[in-house]
Every structure is written in structure tokens, then in C-alpha cells.
Automatic annotation (TrEMBL):
The chain crosses the membrane at residues 6-26, 38-56, 76-98. Belongs to the CPA3 antiporters (TC 2.A.63) subunit C family. Keywords: Membrane, Transmembrane, Transmembrane helix. This is Cation:proton antiporter.
């Protein structure tokens, strides 16, 4: 239990991922599924950023004196997460655009009703 409380960012990320997964799995509303996917994305970003943070080290921005390689964190995981955020926003925008088109055609965003209308 002690390690669980010292790794609270990782614990929070796992809980968020679970909430997003359950939302994605059990709801038939497309908007709720997109929200669940975004919660899962956020959990993954939080987890990787928490793992990349090292207490006592600074961001690799040199102000004044250089502290050497050991004085700074690795900027690559942060850059990858920024790229991931951009991709997640793009996927969300695309999913919402598809949801709008589905609503225009079927007048609902419930997956079960759309499948009934299609005859599947």
C-alpha cells in the first residue's frame, strides 16, 4: 500500500484508464465512447509523463551555468507525449466529424439504433 501512495500519478493514471475503458466498453452513445477514448489517452499521457519525471533534475533549458548531462531530464519522452497529444486531438476531431455525419444520416448517435436501421 505504501508504494501505491508514493506512485500516486501512476495510480491515478491506471484509475483514469480504467474509467475510460469502462466508458468505451459499456456505453452505446458515440459521444460517450469518444469521451472514454479521450480519458484513456489522457491516462496514457499522465503515466508516461510521470515515468519521465525525475525528482531533482530540471528541464533541458540552460539558464546560466550548464549542469552537465546528469542535471537534466531526457526531453524525448516529453516530445513524444506532445506528439501523442496532437495525434489524439486529430483523432478526436475526426471521430466527432464522423459522428456528425452519422447523426445527419440516421438522426441518432446510439450505435444499437444505427445498427437496427442498417439491418445488421
Amino acid at each position: 500500500m505504501e508504494r501505491l501512495m508514493t506512485n500516486y500519478f501512476e495510480t491515478g493514471a491506471m484509475i483514469l484508464f480504467g474509467v475510460g475503458f469502462v466508458t468505451l466498453l459499456f456505453h452505446n452513445n458515440l459521444i460517450k465512447k469518444i469521451i472514454g477514448m479521450n480519458i484513456m489517452d489522457t491516462a496514457v499521457f499522465l503515466f508516461f509523463i510521470a515515468k519521465g519525471a525525475i525528482i531533482g533534475k530540471e528541464a533541458p533549458i540552460i539558464k546560466g551555468t550548464h549542469k552537465g548531462v546528469e542535471g537534466y531530464i531526457n526531453p524525448v519522452p516529453t516530445a513524444l507525449m506532445l506528439t501523442g497529444i496532437v495525434v489524439a486531438v486529430s483523432v478526436t476531431a475526426f471521430a466527432l466529424a464522423l459522428t456528425v455525419k452519422l447523426y445527419e444520416k440516421y438522426k441518432t448517435v446510439e450505435i444499437d439504433e444505427i445498427m437496427k436501421m442498417r439491418g445488421d
